[in-house]
From TrEMBL:
<feature type="domain" description="SpoVT-AbrB">
    <location>
        <begin position="6"/>
        <end position="51"/>
    </location>
</feature>
<dbReference type="Pfam" id="PF04014">
    <property type="entry name" value="MazE_antitoxin"/>
</dbReference>
<protein>
    <submittedName>
        <fullName>AbrB/MazE/SpoVT family DNA-binding domain-containing protein</fullName>
    </submittedName>
</protein>
<dbReference type="GO" id="GO:0097351">
    <property type="term" value="F:toxin sequestering activity"/>
</dbReference>
<dbReference type="GO" id="GO:0003677">
    <property type="term" value="F:DNA binding"/>
</dbReference>
<dbReference type="InterPro" id="IPR039052">
    <property type="entry name" value="Antitox_PemI-like"/>
</dbReference>
<dbReference type="InterPro" id="IPR037914">
    <property type="entry name" value="SpoVT-AbrB_sf"/>
</dbReference>
<dbReference type="InterPro" id="IPR007159">
    <property type="entry name" value="SpoVT-AbrB_dom"/>
</dbReference>
<keyword id="KW-0238">DNA-binding</keyword>
Length: 110
């Protein structure tokens, strides 16, 4: 199936056929994640991002942080989370591609 890029005001866009969207479970106003891999555009449903705030706070409190230091360290750790999650995903994918597997307990240290 071929589609054409069209001009939309100052932007450009494509129209995806309803049958394709329905087959993928996409609906009007769904938030989609757009990735580019090699020469491909990949659309998938956006996932709600868990920022792990509760786990970060619990860990920091257990480490002895309190008051202003707790707030300062929380902001620092929280700011680094998206990149850490991205790196974790990349590492897991590379291990999978290399045929390496890790048991649940080992991965989560339980």
């Amino acid at each position: 199936m071929n589609i054409t890029i069209k001009k939309w005001g100052n932007s450009q866009g494509i129209i995806l056929p309803k049958i394709v969207l329905s087959a993928l479970g996409f609906n009007v106003d769904d938030e989609l994640k757009l990735d580019v891999e090699d020469d491909k555009i990949i659309l998938s449903k956006a996932e709600d991002f868990d920022d792990f705030s509760d786990l970060i706070l619990e860990d920091l409190i257990n480490s002895g942080f309190e008051g202003e230091e707790l707030l300062k360290e929380f902001k620092r750790v929280k700011k680094s989370m998206p990149m850490a999650v991205k790196k974790l995903k990349r590492d897991i994918l590379n291990e999978y591609k290399n045929g390496e597997t890790v048991e649940f307990e080992e991965f989560f240290n339980v």
